[in-house]
Amino acid sequence: MKVILNDFIEHVGERGDSVVVKPGFARNYLLPKGLAYPDTPGNRRRFEQEQHKWEEMDTSRRSSAEVLAKAMAGTELKFERRASEKDALFGSVSVADIAKKLADRGFDLDRRRIMLEHPIKELGNFEVELNIHRDIQVTIPVFVTRPGEEPVRGGDAIENAGAPAVEEVASEPEAEAAAE
């Protein structure tokens, strides 16, 4: 089914694009939510008339996202979880946990905007990316510790939650220069 997108839809297209999507996706999701119109000459004219309203709304969304990003600067999340001797958690820290902790701090963010590939299942320091707007991302540190312990803070201690940590090893001439 050919539709005109009325808003940005990830992996589909930008507002104003005429795209072909599966009929069920259009009938059950895009059309009822007002995210698209069937691609007809009348709807094309309708889209042109509403273009100005959508541009204003996108500008206001972007400015509120920038304000939220500035407010989130310096935000750190700490989770206390029980863990085994090998630092494996009894449970995990999921997207829902991060969203709840952010909501407790006054940041209302949809949990689909939290980019965590897999739940965190070990103790440590992680960086989690938040997609506040399609053009604005914020990375916040997440510390997972045992109850009563303080997190180890430092640039070299933070790992990426989606990928294993990689250690950089200096070659011998660089190590000797650093030692001097």
Describe this structure in words.
It is a single chain. With 180 residues, this protein is α+β, with helices and mostly antiparallel strands. The protein folds into two domains: 69 residues, Ribosomal Protein L9, domain 1 (3-Layer(aba) Sandwich), CATH 3.40.5; 87 residues, Roll (Ribosomal Protein L9, domain 2), CATH 3.10.430. The chain has four helices and ten strands. The longest helix is centred in the first third of the chain and has 32 residues. It starts with a strand and ends with a helix. The C terminus is likely disordered.
Offer a concise description of the structure.
This protein is of the alpha+beta class and about 180 residues long. It has 4 helices and 10 strands. The chain folds into 2 domains: about 1-70, Ribosomal Protein L9, domain 1 (3-Layer(aba) Sandwich); about 75-160, Ribosomal Protein L9, domain 2, CATH 3.10.430.
Overall spatial form: elongated
CATH architecture classification name of the largest domain? Roll
Q: Cα-atom Rg, whole angstroms?
A: 22 Å
Profile the largest sheet: 5 strands, mixed
Q: What is the name of the CATH class of the largest domain?
A: Alpha Beta
- What percentage of amino acids are in beta strands? 25-35%
How many discrete structural domains? 2
**Contiguous runs where pLDDT drops below 50 for at least 5 residues:** 155-180
Give the overall average pLDDT: 82
CATH topology of the largest domain: Ribosomal Protein L9, domain 2
Alpha-carbon distance between the two ends: 69 Å
Count of β-strands: 10
The H/E string reads: EEHEHEEHEEEEEH
Number of helices: 4
Helix content: 25-40%
Could you give me the name of the CATH homologous superfamily of the largest domain?
Ribosomal protein L9, C-terminal domain
> Structural class of the secondary elements?
alpha+beta
